[in-house]
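Note to self: keep these together.
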Amino acid sequence: MKLASYNGFLASHRSNKRFSITFSVLILFSILCTFNLKWISLPSGVFAFSSDASVKVPVIDWVLSKPLMGIVGVVSALMAIISSTGLLLLFGVTFVDMCTVMPFLSLTIGIDDSFLMLAAWHETPRHLPVVDRIGASMKHAAVSISITTLTDALAFLIGAIAPLPAVKYFCFYSCAAIIFIFLYCLSMFVACLALQGRLEARSHNSLLMSPVKDLARPEKLTVWDLAFHMGSIIEDVMPEVEYINNNDVKHESNYKLDADKETADRRMWYQRFFEDYYAPFIANRWMVAFSVLLFSCYVAAAAVGSQQVVVGFDLINIVLAESRPRRFLEVRKKFFPEDFSRLDIAVMKPPRMESSGERNAFMKVLQKFESTPCSAGRNSTDFWYFSFKTYMEKLGFGDAWNNVEEDEESFAENLHGFLMANDKFSYDILKDSNGSTKAFRFTTGLTNVSTDELIYHCATWMRGLCDDNPQYGLSTYTPLWNLADQFEIMWPQTIQDLYISIAVMLCVAMLFIPQPLCAPLIGVSIASVALGVLGIMPYLGVNLDATSMITIAMSVGFSVDFAAHVSYAFMTQKIADNSQENPSFLRLRATLGTVGWPIMQASLSVLLGISSLSFVDSYVVQTCFKTVILVITFGIIHALLFLPLVLMYAHKTYLACAASHRRSQKKVSPMKEVESGQKF
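Structure:
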């Protein structure tokens, strides 16, 4: 079954096409994200549109741009998916249908590490040797990549606690893929980055591997030169050893240098956007007030929606919309709405059916089973006793049945003959060696069990009747009870997983981030995103089932990734708290310049990766698509809006308290001196 399920996945042309689309889209997106555009002024007469005026045109810096690394990032993630799948299949881990979504999610998660590594590379000084730049890049990206890998892997391992096989196997495959992604990123991707770094050190084109023309001296250029041979050569970079970096700042701030140094703005385009435009925009008092209002509405809508969560799914949704089984289920539901399933009831401590007193008492219990809201009634019951009665009445001996009922010996003798004539009922009665009845069974019909909730209520009623009559050792079973058991544990299991995940993620945050305040803020961010996903699901028609359980567990991994990156970057900014400018805002601006674009890249890659799933007409796939959209949307809003503002104002509060404490200390010190003088 394990290999058959995997072969079925490979044989699915629909999945192959979707994955090919995702692979192509992510390669294109990764390549585009590695390009570095710069504006240069073409002097008059140098490929200008006017002979007496210069023209500014955008060109690609082919020295800093690394399109090949975008391809390497996607290919390394694909290799990780193949390696993890092969390894788990080798160990005999079942590949269930839900695992077909794993490659889409893992591929998008995989390229996030490459974005972080490239961002760290661009923050290193270009005058350093390649070996030193690789070491500095890994030093800066190590915490972020480790947090990403550890939190995502732990989130899926915690999700594997669920007793649902589909959820468990999906989490196993996803966790293994994330571990391989981490290993390939720190080995193959870093090795390829070193090769590209050598081209950058020689100021060569990263794609064509040929020398480029300096962006600072655009002279005698052709169209080909503007398109493929422009770059910033190494001599054009600041030669200072103490370079300016968002995380390693040797000045009062990231944005002010000594007055006697005239330096060009060497920041990447995305750093300029987040630092110069986005950070002042969200720090505006009106935007802060709007953010508070937005968060309040978000929490209110999520809280109301969480009270309307529907647990389970309609049985008709587990098959494809265009499949023949789906059509059959739709027709049966339309024309035979009262069609019922069979419920087996085992009597492990049977009464003596030949005794009229015990028989009548048991028949009253049987009548209760046939009278529940989900029972189809007496006509649906298949009980050997009823067939035995019909058999005796058809013999045509007048009051023979009445005589049999009243005489225990006659009852036993005729029952033996009945079982010999009706072989199928002989399997419903288990005899002891002495001929007495050890156990027997019967079946009855169920109706109105079209959803998990109805099945759960039916199971509760039937099992309640069994508990109310322990003298018979009653036990019920139908395959529908598997769904009922899942329904029963779905909500408490989801809440339990969230509690465990938040506790584990807090420990991870305290391990990597040297600031105790960040851990509770990260925990609140995780809980807020999970609440939002859980509360907004009902508005999108998504139920709480095995698929949404997975994505809720995954939301913990995504939200803690984003929150940890922002918190770590905020706390590691080396900006003096006694700066004349607002130090809290400077930290906010530097933080967004450092992690804003990698977070955007990670979010966009996930959205692009799962976009092809939106066209798959399958309930499971659509549920996964909708919930992942919620996870990414809420995660990025928290990471780039709510959390930075909370950190900024928390830092302001800390500085205010520290200043107040220093003032109080200064007031106390002179008083102590006066008192000591009086004593002398």
